[in-house]
Write a structure and sequence with these properties.
Helix content is about 25%, strand content about 30%. It is globular and about 70 Å long. With about 375 residues, it is an alpha+beta fold. It is built from 12 helices and 18 strands. The chain has 2 domains: about 160 residues, 3-Layer(aba) Sandwich (Aminopeptidase); about 180 residues, no CATH class. The two termini are about 40 Å apart.
């Protein structure tokens, strides 16, 4: 369905879909590389699969991954054999180029890599693909050189994670953070914002908001506080607040976790700290609120804070951690304390992830 990626067999896909036109041109086949059409046909026969994003017009994105354990020959050196995941194809349809699907796709392939025992992940790109190069560099891929086909080789190494900012370190969290916290999102917004945070025994709700909010990994939270209990680089748990009736103790739950990437105070005690145009530009297409809703809040809130979050991981259906468990285990704060004021220790954060069936040792690393 449109709105999230799914795994599809090559044989089920139409090689004449417009998304493949540039690949046919860029990879006609040379002595150093197989042509795209021949490669696609072999994949179809071998029952290979790819991650695809589809809508009523066809393919919106197409990603193929390949496990390798061999040398990589570059023009000026040879990278020794190692367990690697190769991003053999990464293609976004023109109609989705400004809707942040590329950011979401990179996150998805890095989650896939994280679940393997491969030390490295790499992608090959032509110099002309500057937008794509910028996206991979943003997520910590480093240029290793140029291969014999004239493509740049960009690689990310599990043992050399750059923790200088949350994008470069994604999907890994450095173990030396001071504390973690909660961000509370109402169910109707949550289920569109966090597309992979599935629910069990609870109907998924869909807000009428831009698809770019669900496509990308960066999310904007708008609140009414003065200052924030969170800091940039801090991990936070996303708490889905159930608003559809009784039973919130068991239906409200932690579904996922993020890292704070920015905090902006837009208004304090009815005093504006930035113009609406500045706020709108900063929020962009990362918020659940359209321009009118955002402006209404900008005008009517006494205080306004904007927090940007990077969607780092999710628990999945059947693994979400409800309010009842959090409170009984002492992770919901003292009586009368609002959850967003709770500061969880590193150990407490890890225990909640473990309850959500997350392999903590493969998420929080040194």
């Amino acid at each position: 369905m449109a709105g999230r990626f799914s795994l599809r067999r090559f044989a089920e896909l139409n090689i004449n879909d417009p998304i493949f036109n540039s690949l046919k041109t860029d990879y006609p086949g040379t002595e150093n590389s197989t042509g795209f059409i021949e490669w696609f046909q072999k994949k179809s026969v071998n029952e290979s699969t790819a991650l695809v994003f589809e809508d009523e017009f066809g393919l919106g994105a197409f990603i193929a991954l390949k496990a390798e354990e061999e040398e990589i020959t570059l023009q000026n050196k040879i990278l020794p054999a190692n367990k690697r995941i190769k991003v053999s194809t990464f293609c976004i349809a023109e109609r989705y180029r400004r809707l942040r699907i590329g950011e979401g796709a990179i996150g998805l392939l890095l989650w896939k890599w994280q679940k393997t025992d491969a030390k490295e992940i790499y992608v090959t790109v032509f110099e002309k693909q500057r937008t794509l190069i910028n996206q991979f560099e943003k997520f910590g891929f480093i240029k290793e050189g140029t291969n014999l086909n004239g493509e740049f080789v960009y690689m990310k190494n599990r043992n050399q994670i750059d923790f200088s900012n949350p994008f470069k370190s994604f999907p890994y969290i450095k173990s030396d953070f001071d504390y973690a916290g909660y961000v509370i999102i109402d169910d109707i917004y949550h289920d569109t914002m966090f597309a992979y945070s599935e629910l069990a025994n609870t109907a998924s709700l869909q807000a009428k908001i831009s698809s770019s909010v669900s496509n990308g990994l960066s999310k904007i939270y708008v609140g009414q506080a003065v200052g924030s209990n969170h800091t940039i680089g801090e991990p936070v748990l996303i708490y889905r607040r159930y608003t559809q009736g009784d039973g919130k103790r068991y239906r409200s739950c932690v579904t996922s976790f993020c890292v704070v990437t920015d905090i902006i105070q837009a208004k304090i005690n009815k005093q504006y700290l930035m113009t609406f145009e500045e706020l709108k530009k900063r929020v962009g297409n990362k918020s659940v609120f359209d321009e009118k809703e955002l402006q209404d809040k900008y005008i009517n809130f006494k205080n306004m804070i904007v927090m940007e979050l990077l969607y780092y991981g999710y628990f999945g259906a059947g693994n979400n951690v409800n309010m009842d468990w959090l409170e009984k285990k002492g992770f919901w704060g003292r009586q009368g304390q609002y959850p967003t004021a709770v500061k969880l220790t590193v150990d407490g954060f890890k225990k909640i992830l473990m309850e959500g069936n997350v392999n903590v040792s493969n998420v929080i690393i040194d």
